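User: Can you help me understand a structure? I only have the sequence.
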Amino acid sequence: MKIVYVSDLHTNLKNYDELLIVVKKNKPDLLIIGGDIFPRGKVSDHINFAENYLYNYFSKVKEIVPEAMIFFILGNDDWKDAEKSFAGIEEKGLAYYCNCKKVSLKNRFEIIGYSYVPPSPFKKKDFEKLDLKEDAIPLNPSEIYISRGGEVVVTNPSSHFSSVGTIEEDLNLLPLPLDFSRSIYILHSPPFNTALDKVMNGLSVGSRSIRAFIEKKQPLLTLHGHIHESYSVTKRFYEKIGKTVSINAGQINLKVDAVIFDTEDIEGTIVHTNPL
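Assistant: Let's start by predicting it. Here is the structure, written out as tokens:
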């Protein structure tokens, strides 16, 4: 099963267009988009982008490869309230929105998505949670933003993080695959202390609970984004954790950064559109 994977397009329309070229060239069975898909702005800007651009974009993918299936999640730079714009997207046969959901394929592969990341320096917090139950609530920035009722509201870290639980807890509540060896997880945060989670100063900022989950459950494949610069720091876009292949396809180049591979031989077929 051939997959084209990309993350963190952030409404770079040039990259969206280039992704169509990648799809046309490779004719994948699956196109997977790993979060941070919307423009910066208000909730209404995200909804308008979904309804006036994204739906048409998915239709273009289907015109190029009619049998291709499209799966996507949101990321920490997206407003959660924009999820309402995806109502009916599956019924239209366009794509599957996978946050905290499982989609089973006819070939017994299963796709499971999860959008949340550990606390970051950024003020937008809809898709941020404490990583572990024992983690301290970060106090900076002291004023943060979340979406409620279609509007952006101001709150503080203590109120937000104390009310939403942790990534560690969420991972135990995700739908279970029938067979982890045929499961594909779309997880916006990369696992901690890997080639996929390094910022420019070399620090690891990925999720410890996601790392522990991968080590314990050993899914076939985990797909990540969020830390764009990690590829330029480590010169690696995938890493094995036990038997699991973990991939980060965040954007760092002028041309779209996508990863293409076949699930029958991931390491033997995996290529990056912009090899370093």
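Now, to help you interpret it: Residues 43-64 form the longest helix (22 residues). The longest strand covers residues 2-6. Let me know which part you'd like to focus on.
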